[in-house]
Amino acid sequence: MTDEKVDFNEISYEDILAPYACTGAHSRGRLKAEPEVASRSCYQRDRDRIIHSSAFRRLKHKTQVFVYHEGDHFRTRLTHSLEVAQISRSICRSLHLNEDLGEALALAHDLGHPPFGHAGEAVINDCMKNYGGFDHNAQAIRLVTRLEQRYAAFEGLNLTWETLEGMAKHNGPLIDGPMKGTKEISDLPFGVSDYVQEHDLLLHTYPAAEAQIAALADDIAYSSHDLDDGLRADLFDVDELKSIPIVAQLIDEVRWTYKEASKTVFIHELVRRLINRLVNDLMIETRRRLGELNPQRPDDIRFAGKPIVAFSPEMQKAVVSLKKFLKNRMYNHYLVNRMASKAKRVVSDLFELYISEPECLPTEWSDRATRPNTAETARVVADFIAGMTDRYAFREHAKLFDLSRVTL
User: Which of 156, 208, 311, 370 has the greatest number of C-beta atoms within 10 Å?
Assistant: First the structure.
């Protein structure tokens, strides 16, 4: 009997994935066909295009919870996206799914957020209520399909179908059934509604498993790391977290194991253990659901009729309790509310000025907004403001509304 030698150079990374993982060989491709390259998979190229985009760089100075100047150690949209990517990548690898796609989706998930977080989004949406509204998820699609101008052959980043699908419906189906006319499209948020008219993303199904993982990696990251930031900012203390069962248990574990730990080390250990507990529960529950479904291809996940990647029911209750605590004690804290109030005024003032006087926009934007107070100009203004960082929005506001400034 002779031993067969395996040439590992002939085995690609995607050859060892689960049969229900997304692979480049079975991708639905890009809207504008491009030749693929041997050195990188199509999802690696998506990830790299996202990282090199202008929208991704701007996340460095966009609010997660605290506005950019409130402390160097608090999280921004950029650091949050990197943390989500790490968690998504790790879970995908453990479940034999495509970690390149999971990473690309995690890095892209916050691209559409305007300055000042949810406070900024609420104001833009209110300003746009008569012009089609504003939704940060749809804006992310708009950015990667329309607004990023980097390539001569196409507008946007020309990402793969699977990446766009995951971005559009990472929280689940957007419509009840296959699109049969314009009504379903008109009910969708702008950014998705205009794009799917030329590129069907199967909005009536769940996304692939990698997108479901990226979505829950976001939940894990922002819940645990906002808790971290809130503790470090002294918005609440550790003992107040004992109302949340899973966190109370971890607090007791850390106190028993590390009796002499400093506050900084204690917080880090608590958050680390919380992330581990959430990730492990998600993988156990997801493996259970995969065993029941026995999927043999990615579409089996899409058409399962329910999420396949999920927390256990007990852990889901704990996550809801943690989110409720953070909303009451952190997101609605008066110090956060004060900055949010200021941010709302900045965004509102800028929008009203730009839509009525589009000639005040930078030239490349004013050229697209020639008529004041129209739907077309409103969308250009929304795109422009949504792309601002926190500090740029503050600077623009000062330039335009501080009458004592003599330079612009």
Answer: 208
Distances (CA, A) of 195 to 81, 133, 156: 24, 16, 12
d(CA 135, CA 173): 16
Average pLDDT, the chain: 91
> For the segment 134-185, what is each residue's pLDDT rounded down to a tens digit?
999 999 999 999 999 999 999 999 999 999 999 999 889 999 888 766 556 7
| Domain coordinates in residue numbering, the chain | 25-32+39-186, 209-333, 336-401
**Alpha carbons 211 and 217: distance in angstroms, whole number:** 10
Q: Is the dihedral of CA 274, 277, 283, 287 positive or negative?
A: negative
CA distance 48 to 103: 10
CATH of domain 25-32+39-186: 1.10.3210.10
DSSP, res 188: S
Q: How much of the chain is in helix, strand and coil states, percent to nearest 5?
A: 60, 0, 40
Please classify residue 312 by burial: count the beta carbons closer than 10 Å to its beta carbon, then call 0-12 exposed, 13-18 middle and 19+ buried.
Answer: middle
Instruction: Average the pLDDT over 51-72 and give the result.
Output: 77
Report how far residue 117's alpha carbon sits from residue 76's, in angstroms, rounded to the nearest whole number: 10
Look at the block and give the residue holding tokens 């395996």: 6
Handedness of CA 264, 267, 270, 272 (dihedral sign): negative
